[in-house]
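Appendix B. One record, verbatim.
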Amino acid sequence: MMEYKGYAAGPIDFDPEDKTFSGTVAGLRDVIHFEGRTATELARAFRESIDGYLELCAESGQQPDRPFNGKILVRTEPELH
């Protein structure tokens, strides 16, 4: 699994016609897409896409989307906790 700066790649697809691998970053509302012809190109594109997304968010003053972690927080009475 590819991970970078707290982001993880989702499933990777292969297009036999174009001979390219592509994927998106998993667990986000925003879509971050990346692709490459080799594993090295794919990994580089993954990192560059995340860096580009974070730069765009910083320039626009937008808070970057963070991956979902699957945790649900529940507040209870101290006695129950």
